[in-house]
Write a structure and sequence with these properties.
Helices cover 36% and strands 17% of the residues. By secondary structure, the protein is an alpha/beta fold. The strands form 3 sheets. It has an 8-stranded parallel β-barrel, surrounded by 5 helices. A two-stranded antiparallel ribbon has the order 1-2. A two-stranded antiparallel ribbon has the order 6-7. β1 and β2 form a beta hairpin. Keywords: Oxidoreductase, Plasmid.
Length: 332
């Protein structure tokens, strides 16, 4: 497994990370045993970075990971945890809480669910509009000093907020959506991170399955999970975006790889400071994703991909309007 270092202050991790969210939430029913088997297969393949959030399944995802890694040497894996999202028992959203006392409370419960004595990277899931980012980062920094957290990360923050956070404590990485059809970070956020020595852990590299090469208009889950509310999966937007996937399929076929593999390899090619997170829920999808590490994209390949899926080519926003409004990274 190739490795990459998250920023100038962060840990060295596997070149691909495993996003575990879908094993517990948002994509319909999941198989617990298959989820654990997928985590084990990832670790056996050399993946070290496991990404989760304390609100994924209201703690279910952390408990799942805790079960999967129980008894393993602690230096074999790294856990990245997002916190702050508030949810009702029915799964609906109540907002965010990133007050210092809440930060420390969330962390205590996360450590218990995971069965660990420290978290490798701890990060607010979103900017709390009612709490200065300096206060939130300061609270995590207290937990670093106490030994409960190793590194501090951010998620979906804009360039100004990133700078303010980094002035309080070194930030190892920003977790944010980045894919062939989600390139908004290239304008200001990615340059700011590189200026500050902050890495990127990229989620949504397959755009929630849309550019995986497996999604069809009548795919199961199109109306049964949160993608039903995603503009990119609706009506004419979906037709347009699937046409882009067919263009990408021709590029992948000429290379002798799958659509998912070429989409992941494109993210890998964007810089050694970028670590894609693949949200595989099954071992076969994990195996396919890992195949993206087995070839390099040439300059000609990259030019062909750019022609097939140029910047801004996707139809529809990456989240529904209400969720887009909560993203500090989308504020202009």
């Amino acid at each position: 497994m190739d490795t990459r270092t998250l920023g100038t202050s962060g840990p060295t991790v596997s070149a691909l990370g495993l996003g575990c969210m879908g094993m517990s939430d948002f994509y319909g029913p999941a198989d617990r045993a298959e989820g654990i088997a997928t985590i084990h297969a990832a670790l056996d393949a050399g993946v070290t970075l496991l990404d989760t959030g304390d609100f994924y399944g209201m703690g279910h995802n952390e408990m799942l990971i805790g079960e999967a890694v129980r008894g393993m040497p602690r230096d074999r894996f790294q856990v990245s945890v997002k916190f702050g999202a508030l949810r009702m028992p029915d799964g609906s959203w109540l907002g965010y809480d990133a007050r210092p006392a809440a930060v420390k409370n969330f962390l205590a419960h996360t450590l218990g669910r995971l069965g660990l004595d420290h978290i490798d990277i701890y990060r607010p899931a979103r900017l709390d509009p009612n709490v200065p980012i300096e206060d939130t980062i300061g609270a995590i920094a207290d937990m670093v000093k106490a030994g409960y957290v190793r590194h501090i990360g951010l998620s979906e923050m804009g360039a100004d907020t990133i700078r303010r956070a980094a002035a309080v404590h070194p930030i190892c990485d920003l977790q944010i959506e980045y894919a062939l059809i989600s390139r908004g970070i290239e304008d200001a956020i990615l340059p700011a991170c590189r200026e500050l020595g902050i890495g990127i852990t990229a989620y949504g590299v397959l755009s929630r399955g849309l550019i995986s090469g497996h999604w069809k208009k009548d795919s199961a889950g199109a109306t049964g999970d949160f993608r039903a509310h995603s503009p990119r999966f609706q009506g004419e937007n979906l037709d347009h975006n699937l046409a882009l996937v067919e263009e990408l399929r021709r590029v992948a076929a000429a290379k002798g790889v799958s659509v998912a593999q070429i989409a992941i390899a494109w993210v890998l090619s964007r810089g050694s400071d970028i670590v894609p997170l693949v949200g595989a829920r099954r071992r076969d999808r994990l195996t396919e994703a890992l195949g993206a590490l087995e070839f390099d994209l040439t300059p000609d390949d990259l030019a062909t991909i750019e022609r097939a899926v140029p910047p801004g080519a996707a139809a529809g926003d990456r989240y529904a309007p209400q969720q887009m409004a909560m993203l500090d990274s989308e504020r202009r």
